[in-house]
Write a structure and sequence with these properties.
about 160 residues; mainly alpha; Four Helix Bundle (Hemerythrin (Met), subunit A)
Length: about 160
């Protein structure tokens, strides 16, 4: 198995399951209503904002792997689309799942030596840093989502 196939697998695992931590985003947002997804708990970000924030970097990497310019700015990474219904929430999640799968597929198809090439410009490091970063970043925010979900259940 190539390194890019390993990275692709880990990306799928953090979003869809069967990873070392036995925890994944799809599992933890399953069954969350749009109301709970958009409910603020204390001063924390909402679940919807955290899912979008994790997805934002998936979308940015996906665009680059599709041959498009990088058009992402951290200051917009929590600006999720408006969610006013269960249909909005479900539609958003479906977009996330489809784009994650596409990123995983494109990642697996990369030659391993591409991982060490500069990702757009030197300020962003290499492809490995960016693709692995999405996985690490998602695990971090997944923990927050799990805790917020527990707090919502207590209310």
């Amino acid at each position: 198995m190539t390194i890019t196939e390993q990275i692709s697998g880990q990306l799928r695992e953090v979003f869809f399951g069967k990873n070392w931590t036995a925890s994944n985003l799809q599992q933890h947002v399953a069954g969350i209503s749009w109301v709970d997804a958009t409910t603020k708990v204390h001063s924390f970000n909402t679940i919807a904002a955290l899912v979008y924030h994790s997805y934002y970097y998936v979308a940015a990497n996906l665009q680059v792997l599709k041959g498009n310019p990088l058009d992402a700015h951290d200051k917009y990474s929590f600006d999720h689309p408006a969610i006013y219904s269960q249909e909005d929430w479900d539609g958003f999640l479906n977009k996330v799942w489809l784009d994650v799968e596409e990123l995983a597929t494109l990642t697996a198809a990369l030659p391993d030596d591409q991982l060490w090439n500069t990702f757009v410009n030197e300020a962003y490091g290499n492809y490995y840093r960016n693709l692995n970063g999405v996985i690490q970043h998602t695990h971090y925010h997944l923990g927050q989502i799990v805790l917020i979900k527990k707090l919502l259940a207590e209310q």
